[in-house]
């Protein structure tokens, strides 16, 4: 009896050891049968770390660098003439260039009350050096000479040159460039109109040069010059509003590539790239053409023959 009592705990202990061994073996077998983690499968953290960084939008409002914090500064001359501006007040958004300027500002992310205007004389706008504006808009034609010291956006308007004269002027009925060569012509200093007279008309008399268009118009009305060369939209406004006794004698055929107005920037300003994107969007959407149709006169003036 005593031996049997002593034997039973011993057998129970053996059974427990065997049972534990069986469980351990089953656990080991189960663990060994599970697939090992793949070395090629990165963890979530590793995947996030290895993912390429999202590209920065350099043209997002918060990434633009402007001359004044949180403001877009635009330059133009005064007086600011129709049809490009109205009432000599660019801030009202009226007129072709005022409307274009605010459309560009909106495309860059600036509301109308986040735009400030600065007076910049035409002749100094394209001078070399630092600028106190982000861009200037003032019927400034894109030329290789100017591009040496400033940058331009893509063109926002293609323009022809035209001759304005009083209805009793000696050239009032001229139909060819040759008929203009003996005339006394005038233009504003520093303009492509002045360059155009010298390069295309090649007059026999010295061209009369004026500080601004107002001086040139006064000279024409006083008989000091026979005619004034300006861009075609300005010619329409002069004859329709300012000098009813004047007429558009004719316009010149566009030169190769066409003369275009561009927004002017300080040389090296990275804002040019973003403005060009905005202008492309405005063109593609039809908004730029709609602005032109609203503010610019037609092009029915006769063309001069060679």
Helices and strands in order:
Blueprint: H1 2-33, H2 44-50, E1 72-76, H3 96-108, E2 115-119, H4 122-125, E3 135-136, H5 144-147, E4 150-152, E5 157-159, E6 161-166, E7 185-188, H6 192-201, E8 208-210, H7 213-221, E9 227-231, H8 232-242, E10 246-251, E11 259-261, E12 264-266, H9 271-285, H10 287-295
Parallel strand pairs: 1-2, 1-3, 7-8, 7-9
Antiparallel strand pairs: 4-12, 5-11, 6-9, 6-10
Report on this structure.
The chain is an alpha/beta fold. The protein folds into two domains: about 60-155 and about 260-295, D-Maltodextrin-Binding Protein, domain 2 (3-Layer(aba) Sandwich); about 160-250, D-Maltodextrin-Binding Protein, domain 2. It is built from ten helices and twelve strands. The protein has helices at about 1-35, 45-50, 95-110, 120-125, 145, 190-200, 215-220, 230-240, 270-285, 285-295, and strands at about 70-75, 115-120, 135, 150, 155-160, 160-165, 185-190, 210, 225-230, 245-250, 260, 265. It has a five-stranded mixed beta sheet with strand order 8-7-9-6-10. Strands 2-1-3 form a three-stranded parallel beta sheet, with helices on one face. The radius of gyration is 38 Å and the shape is elongated. Mean pLDDT is about 85; it is low at about 1-50.
